[in-house]
Write a structure and sequence with these properties.
heterodimer, A: alpha/beta, 12 helices, B: alpha/beta, eight-stranded mixed sheet, 27% helix
Chain lengths: 283, 206
């Protein structure tokens, strides 16, 4: 029987793993390669890397990281941020990415997604959607939630059905990093209009919310950051011998405090909890 | 044992070469007839479409080379699309002849029960018989990404089945020197590496 996927989203800014609230106010949490290895050993099903500034600056800087981690991490790696053309996709696949996630360029030029699906197989192309609610409608944003597209999420998904993609990763930007849960009614609406596997991100603050997500929707997976990161970040040696670069705010990391809104959990503990509640997971 | 990993210039070979390297085998990534002839085992990976992959094999003049080597008893391991290429024909986009090393055809997963296509994610294997290759245990899950499935004419070659919703398909095969996996062992964590390691050990004995 097919498992529900427990994915970890690693947001990267420069050399650091970061996490913010509503995709903003990025706090440095540690080194992405160290987190990757740890999560792999802890049984994560997939890693999803997002270069948080790539789209804005027009370049993806994850090539070296992906090349490094894929040497001894044998699970699917999805990479996104600033992917503009077929060559970008090819170059990321060449260093070990399995799936490429596209947002801005897909909104700007839907035909690009069609071309990419034809060339690389649609299973390897993931459409990322940054959804923000305004007057009871969700709209698509890009550049890590900074810019507005005037396209309604539901309309966009109908369009994606036509152009083809292997997966849709939907981020609830309003809930991202807040732990306030997912908009399950909206996910149910999406399920009625598409057959493409959906991965949900943004809002997981405790294990019960993840359980609800799988009980009440048919989504294929959940993509988690804060819920795991805040648990594992305290395991690393964060003392002053580790030099974090200037990019980002390290106060949170150095203070070794826990987030109040996020009941962080270990990957395997979440999976065990879900399995007990009859949600099939890879243990 | 020297392994030749076939390069069709469409797929991500990085994962499979990393896995083979990790398991400490010698390998060469190649699409040259000589290197395939001189290897002891062939891995046919593959991402992309069935017709394009077959046209690449023909363009590189190794379509017949592969058939000849396998007919002469050289072990071959097909993965994902590479597994599907082992069969007689594929129906992706149009009907295309495959390598015909295993009699059977490759078809689109049924569009019923609203199951998403492609079938993406982790799923388990239901053993179909007691052949020599060992799956570490029935609970292990492996990573699948595919829209098509292979149906062998002779059900005895099927080593395992997998269920996607209520639909049961053949997820791995073994027929003498021919091994094939619909899933990606090189992307299936420790369970996948174990399976690949066992397969290579079995291939070495051939």
């Amino acid at each position: 029987m097919k498992c529900k996927r427990i994915i970890s989203k690693l947001e990267i800014k420069g050399p650091n793993l970061v996490k913010g609230v509503n995709l903003e106010g990025m706090r440095v949490l540690g080194k992405p390669d160290e987190f990757s290895k740890l999560y792999y050993n802890e049984n994560i099903d997939e890693l999803y890397y997002q270069d948080t500034v790539a789209s804005l600056y027009g370049r993806n800087s994850l090539y070296n990281l992906i090349e490094k981690v894929s040497k001894d991490i044998f699970i699917p790696l999805c990479v996104g941020g600033g992917v503009k053309n077929l060559k970008d996709i090819y170059n990321l696949l060449k260093v070990g990415a399995d799936k490429i996630s596209i947002n801005k360029q897909a909104l700007k030029k839907p035909n690009f997604v069609y071309e990419a699906s034809q060339k690389f197989g649609k299973a390897n192309i993931c459409i990322s959607i940054e959804a923000i609610k305004s007057e009871n409608e969700y709209y698509c944003f890009f550049d890590n939630g900074r810019n507005f597209s005037n396209i309604k999420v539901l309309d966009w998904i109908k369009n994606i059905n036509q152009i083809g993609a292997g997966e849709i990763c939907l981020t609830f930007v309003d809930s991202d990093g807040t732990g306030k849960g997912f908009d399950l009614d909206f996910i149910n609406k999406i399920e009625k209009i598409t057959n493409i596997p959906i991965v949900i991100h943004g809002g997981a603050g405790n294990k019960k919310q993840v359980l609800e997500l799988f009980k009440k929707t048919k989504c294929d997976g959940v993509s988690i950051s804060s819920l795991f990161h805040y648990n594992y970040m305290l395991q690393f040696n964060n003392d002053s011998d580790i030099k974090y670069s200037d990019e980002g705010n390290v106060d949170f990391l150095m203070s070794k405090t826990k987030s109040k809104k996020i009941e962080s959990i270990k990957i395997n503990n979440l999976k065990k909890f879900l399995t007990k509640q009859k949600i099939n997971c890879r243990i | 044992m020297k392994i030749s990993i076939i390069d069709l210039e469409v797929s991500n070979l990085y994962s499979i070469t990393n896995a083979v390297k990790y398991l400490d085998y010698n390998y060469v990534v190649s699409s040259s007839k000589n290197e395939i002839d001189n290897s002891d085992c062939i891995i046919l990976p593959g991402v992309g479409s069935f017709p394009y992959a077959i046209s690449q094999l023909k363009k590189k003049n190794i379509y017949q080379t592969l058939i000849k080597n396998v007919k002469n008893g050289k072990p071959i391991i097909g993965i994902c699309l590479g597994f599907q290429l082992l069969f007689s024909s594929g129906q992706e986009f149009k009907n295309t002849n495959g390598l015909n090393l295993i009699k059977g055809s490759v078809k689109l997963l049924p569009k019923k029960n609203n199951l998403p296509i492609p079938h993406v994610g982790w799923n388990n294997l239901i053993k179909s018989n007691k052949k020599s290759i060992s799956f570490s245990n029935n609970k292990d899950n492996f990573y699948f990404v595919h829209s098509y499935y292979a149906e062998p004419d002779d059900k005895k070659v099927c080593l395992s089945y997998t269920k996607y919703g209520n639909f049961k398909f053949c997820s791995s095969i073994l027929s003498e020197n021919i091994f094939g996996f619909q899933f990606h062992p090189e992307k299936s964590g420790r369970a996948g590496l174990n399976l690949l390691s066992n397969t290579l050990k079995n291939a070495k004995k051939i």
